[in-house]
TrEMBL record:
InterPro entries: LanC (IPR033889), LANC-like (IPR007822)
Gene Ontology terms describing biological process: peptide modification
Lineage, top ranks: Bacteria, Bacillati, Actinomycetota, Actinomycetes, Pseudonocardiales
Pfam families the record matches: LANC_like
Source organism per UniProt: Amycolatopsis acidicola
Keyword Zinc: yes
Name listed for the protein in its UniProt record: Lanthionine synthetase C family protein
GO MF term list: metal ion binding
Coiled coil segments of this chain: none
Amino acids binding Zn(2+): C256, C305, H306
Keyword terms of this UniProt record: Metal-binding, Zinc
Domain of life: Bacteria
SMART domains: LANC_like (SM01260)
Length: 382
């Protein structure tokens, strides 16, 4: 995640006050003495103007981010504010949907921020699902179904989510043919998780099951069944054409791009499809990842986005929904002990925020996610 300008720090769920408020409100749900600190952070996140502009507001910034945290508090005193914010969120979501449908009608490839979890319509949809706004959520799902339809570009028939530029907007070098992104934060695993979660809550649109299967088939195509199965984070046009990857082995086991996030999205899809064979297969991939020292050694920090906290919390969510005979039912205690050892031996991040800071680490350690569902913003909770 990139640093955020100071003018936006107060309204950022990713790195700023909104994520810190989420931490303290989640703790206050089980410890009433924590409400004073929680209310202080809520005042901090609302003390300056809040963006609701379609170009800037996302689940992790602005009105959608603040509505998300206020709703997660479960506190009735914040409901009027959430209702006001929802009017703005509805308008900006409809604007972004209209732009996305025009882009598809014109047969252009998308940019990740159109559809992804962090910046796009998948994130806005996750917020709508959290607050039960099913009518507008169905419009988002309808768009995601369209996103899975193939798109012809420069002679190639790409999946509809193939992005016109590289992961950071690059249009030269190896990214001049765009890229395919598999991750849950910025890639197609995010839409997959939202489509599956909505289906499990009986929020459906025509073509939803077919869209889920299309994404699953694509992820199956790119799974590498080596000694330790894995998926790449991204694909270049050359890799997509030849089937040959520059990446030669598993990446770090992170929530954002790695095996844990990809497994959770596919497990949710398997649960939505009532497919126990697929469910067991992906659960075994995560168990294998956790038992692979080479993969665990790639974790370089304790954070929620791409470090130990993300691995622990995502694994806990997968294990909670796992089949009774899943190997994941026994791995969490040892994994938590290893995380505790890591925290004792390494300094805490200097950043205080959710995705790359201390708030996310604290939430991953706090055992109340089943009550607060704070991790709906990560598309982990059912």
């Amino acid at each position: 995640m990139s640093p955020i300008h100071d003018d936006h720090w107060h309204q950022s769920l990713a790195v700023g006050a909104v994520g810190i408020a989420l931490e303290h409100t989640a703790k206050a749900r089980t410890d009433p003495d924590g409400w004073l600190r929680a209310h202080c952070w809520i005042r901090e996140m609302t003390r300056k103007p809040i963006t609701a502009a379609p170009a800037t507001a996302t689940l992790f910034l602005g009105a959608p981010a603040i509505a998300y945290t206020l709703h997660t508090t479960g506190h009735p005193g914040y409901l009027p504010a959430v209702r006001v914010l929802d009017d703005h969120i509805s308008a900006l979501t409809q604007d972004r949907l209209a732009r996305a449908h025009r882009r598809i009608d014109q047969r252009h490839l998308p940019e990740p921020r159109e559809f992804d979890l962090i910046s796009g319509l998948t994130g806005l949809g996750a917020g709508l699902l959290q607050r039960g706004h099913t009518r507008l959520l169905r419009d988002v799902l309808t768009y995601l179904v369209r996103l899975t339809q193939p798109m012809r570009h420069r002679g190639d028939l790409f999946p509809g989510w193939w992005c016109r530029s590289g992961p950071q907007g690059q249009r030269t070098g190896r990214w001049q043919g765009g890229h395919g992104n598999l991750g849950i934060a910025h890639g197609i695993a995010g839409p997959l998780a939202l489509l599956a979660l909505a289906h499990r809550r009986h929020v459906t649109v025509p073509g939803q099951i077919a869209a889920i299967r299309t994404i699953l088939d694509w992820l199956d195509d790119w799974r590498r069944d080596t000694e330790h199965p894995w998926w790449p984070a991204t694909l270049t046009r050359a890799e997509w054409r030849t089937g040959t990857l520059r990446q030669h082995g598993p990446q770090r086991p992170s929530w954002c791009y790695g095996t844990p996030g990809l497994v959770r999205a596919q497990q949710l899809a398997a649960l939505a499809l009532h497919d126990p064979v697929r469910q067991r297969r992906v659960e075994h991939v995560l168990a294998d990842c956790i038992h692979d020292p080479a993969q665990l050694s790639q974790l370089r920090d304790a954070t929620l986005c791409h470090g130990w906290a993300g691995l622990i919390h995502t694994t806990a969510r997968v294990a909670a929904d796992a089949a009774p005979d899943s190997p994941l039912t026994t791995v969490l205690p040892a994994l938590r002990r290893r995380f505790a050892t890591y925290l004792r031996q390494h300094p805490s991040p200097s950043a205080p925020g959710l995705l790359e800071g201390r708030a996310g680490i604290a939430l991953a350690q706090h055992n109340n996610s089943l009550i607060t569902r704070w991790d709906a913003c990560l598309l982990l909770t059912t």
